[in-house]
Specification:
- It is built from 22 helices and 32 strands.
- By secondary structure, it is of the alpha+beta class.
- Strands 1, 2, 3, 4, 5, 6, 7, 17, 18, 19, 20 and 32 form a 12-stranded mixed β-sheet that branches. Strands 13, 24, 25, 26, 27, 30 and 31 form a 7-stranded antiparallel β-sheet that branches. Strands 23-28-29 form a 3-stranded antiparallel β-sheet.
- Strand 6, helix 5 (about 150-160) and strand 7 (about 170) form a beta-alpha-beta unit.
């Protein structure tokens, strides 16, 4: 679909119309009461909405037009280009709307039974809130300009625009994604019809990784409305209390006012709507949970899949015996243990629940919200009259390197929600970063913040593959069309501690603590960055490596591509990397160097994790379902061989973080506890780049929590 056709082009949609009282009905007849209710609704909407909001109903060779947008409860959405005929005839038909809407309750203009059965015909409408045309917001002013329409950005779009007195603009680099909606909403599509390596993925690659045999590693990130929440594996897990509290402590003055476990938990719960598991799945997969730790009224639905398979429950039992016992509540700040994780999925329809369809789609008709897709923010614009607190006044944006540059103005704030890679890149291109780096590329220094892009951390991961004895014990290798079957996602996890990994855990812990403290003073670093790393490494030594309840490794029991796959992911790497621009071209990737396995202790932990996976696979009942180990295979046994195999096969778990760390400015920090970029008065960051330490969890829940806290901070709640 062409995202930019004219100034009329918003985000366009196809709809099937259903009765509000029978949402999925295909029966021959609905009650006339349904149509009476709809008629009343139509009359209200005609009075409310501007004439350029059009709906086209095409049925049985007859075309009807209404100057409304149907509410979501009447719609099943897919997306297409708008009808030019619709726009052409709009003026001539608007005078007929009022009488037609009223007459709906009395006269059947066309067969009611046919309308109710309508599922696949073309129904087009233009949304005022979303556009792919860069001219639609060019030169305009909004109270808040949000950079990035991903996991965090759409949360803020929703919360800030809830107050009708605030005007909000969101600029997303990727397309809307509506034209390939099933690629996002069908959970199993992440495996078999994935958005990875498509136009909806940035398709990033790291720099050559010296300790991974010189390989450049793939770094998928969402480039679409919803960001990485639209393409991720749907794991909904949370970090530990100790990690979140360490974050608040590192943040410095006022850190505890907004952060720490209690505050983060409130933010995560505010975004969540927990749905109970099906009884059959709960019993087979040994699911335990405590509803008091979860939100019940948030936009993001969480639940467990509608189906499960034997190896899931078997993994839970075997891992519990070998590594860590089952935990009854992994969401209350104690994630150490073995359990079946929640998935960000709606139990009502077994579809992916993510920031676009839960935070944005229900509010698409807000007059004070505009979402622009297909445009990259190239630079934040500043008023530098106050040298100590420069003011962000807007942003520049472009559809491509060769197209015209646009500008949008911010009355109150610019908020960066572009993620751990794009946010530091935008800051550096805008003159905020290390003066040495900026001067090297001919960029005028607005604020000298050497910590921008530094402190990069990522969960490095690998997986062992096992052949199942029975094909029925693994998930189908294609989308079936059955909502329940297609709802299956990988969800068996075990967060393990040193006691589970090592025979002499105290010895290993002491070595890790000692090495963490040594690292702070090593290498050529800016003095402020050095002080910050000294504090973060000391925090790791005390709170991460010094606590039995914090898990350095995640073990995941997966069923993928016809095999049983058990993964290990390092949660707290000692190795640190960076994100740095190569030049002034915003359309060229920055240098992304996670420095995987630069520290030998990281490899030591991963090697033991591989051995632990083998122990789990050899413990009943899981071993009874496994025919043999496919990869790396029984020939790979020595420590040297195991390490060589890891270097050849390890890669990202898709959780880069910490490149705009919340630390004091004197310690290489980028943002303050109020999320404002140091040295600015109204530029904030709200995404995975702000935690100063890597979190032992998949980051979806954390980013939702960050965004909810950010909204409260901005609104003064």
């Amino acid at each position: 679909m062409q995202e930019r056709q004219s100034a009329w082009n918003g985000l366009d949609a196809r709809h099937s119309l259903t009765c509000p009282n029978r949402r999925n009905s295909t029966s021959r007849m609905h009650s006339y009461a349904c149509w009476l209710n709809m008629s009343e609704f139509l009359c209200r909407q005609v009075r409310r909405h501007a004439p350029w909001q059009t709906v086209q109903f095409r049925h049985s060779g007859v075309v009807y037009f209404m100057g409304i947008i149907m509410p979501s409860r009447f719609q099943r959405r897919t997306y297409s280009a708008p009808s030019p005929h619709c726009l052409e005839l709009l003026g001539a038909t608007m005078t007929r709307l009022f009488s037609w809407a009223a007459a709906l309750s009395v006269v059947s203009v066309f067969s009611i039974s046919q309308v109710s059965a309508y599922v696949g015909e073309v129904h087009n409408y233009t949304r005022r809130a979303t556009t792919g045309n860069g001219w639609d917001i060019d030169g305009k002013s909004f109270d808040y300009v949000i950079v990035g329409g991903g996991t965090a950005g759409l949360v803020l779009a929703n919360r800030l625009s809830a107050d009708g007195s605030n005007s909000v603009a969101v600029i997303e680099a990727g397309p809307s994604g509506y034209e390939d909606n099933d690629k996002f909403i069908v959970p199993s599509a992440m495996l078999y019809d994935s958005a990875v390596n498509t136009q909806y993925d940035w398709q990033y690659k790291t720099t050559s990784q010296k300790h991974l045999n010189g390989k450049e590693k793939s770094w998928p990130r969402g480039k679409v409305l919803g960001g990485s929440s639209a393409i991720n594996g749907l794991y909904y897990v949370r970090p530990s209390r100790e990690e979140a509290d360490a974050w608040a402590e590192l943040a410095g003055k006022n850190g505890w006012n907004h952060w720490g476990w209690d505050n983060l938990l409130n933010g995560m719960k505010k975004s969540e709507k927990l749905q109970t598991p099906l009884k059959s799945v709960r019993e087979q997969a040994h699911i335990e949970y405590d509803g008091r730790s979860h939100g019940r009224n948030g936009p993001i639905h969480t639940t467990w899949p509608a189906v499960t398979y034997g190896p899931v429950g078997a993994f839970i039992e075997s891992a519990s015996k070998v590594a860590v016992p089952r935990v009854k509540d992994a969401y209350d700040g104690q994630n150490h243990g073995t359990y079946v994780a929640l998935s960000s999925m709606n139990k009502r329809n077994w579809q992916r629940s993510f920031s676009r369809n839960e935070y944005l789609d229900p509010i698409s008709d807000r007059n004070n919200l505009q979402v622009l897709t297909g445009h990259l923010v190239t630079q934040v614009i500043f008023d530098r009259s106050d040298k100590n607190h420069v003011q962000a006044t807007g942003v520049h944006y472009k559809a491509s390197v060769d197209e015209v540059e646009h500008t949008v103005h911010a009355n109150k704030e610019v908020i960066l929600c572009a993620g751990a890679i794009n946010t530091p890149q935008i800051l550096q291109l805008s003159g905020i970063g290390s003066s040495d780096l900026l001067n090297r590329h001919g960029i005028d220094v607005v604020v000298d913040l050497p910590g921008v892009g530094e402190n990069l951390q990522d969960h490095i991961s690998f997986g062992l593959s096992f052949r199942a004895k029975n094909d029925k014990d693994v998930a189908p290798q294609q989308i079936t069309g059955n909502k329940k079957t297609d709802s299956y996602v990988n969800s068996a996890v075990s967060y393990v501690n040193f006691e589970s990994l090592f025979k002499h855990p105290d010895h290993v812990r002491a070595k890790l603590q000692a090495r963490a403290r040594e690292l702070a003073g090593e290498g050529k670093k800016n003095e402020a960055v050095r002080r910050g790393q000294e504090k973060t490494y000391e925090s790791m030594a005390q709170h991460v490596f010094g606590e039995d309840v914090v898990s350095p490794v995640e073990i995941l029991g997966n069923l993928i591509f016809g095999s049983i796959n058990i993964q290990a992911a390092l949660q707290h790497p000692l190795s640190r990397g960076y994100v740095r621009i190569k030049n002034k071209n915003p359309f060229e990737w920055p240098l992304m160097n996670p420095n995987y396995l630069k520290e030998d202790m990281d490899m030591t932990v991963l090697r033991q994790s591989l051995k632990l996976i083998r122990k789990i696979s050899q413990e009943s009942p899981l071993k009874d379902l496994i025919a043999h180990e496919d990869s790396p295979g029984s020939d790979v046994q020595s420590n040297e061989d195991l390490e060589n195999w890891i270097r050849e096969n390890a890669g990202t778990e898709y959780h880069p973080s910490s490149t705009c760390s919340m630390l004091p400015r004197s310690e290489g920090g980028v943002v303050a506890p109020n999320l404002k970029v140091h040295g600015t008065s109204n530029l904030r960051v709200a995404d995975a780049s702000i935690p100063p330490l890597s979190m032992s969890c998949h980051l979806e829940s954390v980013v939702y929590g960050i965004a909810e806290i950010a909204a409260d901070l901005i609104l003064g709640n």
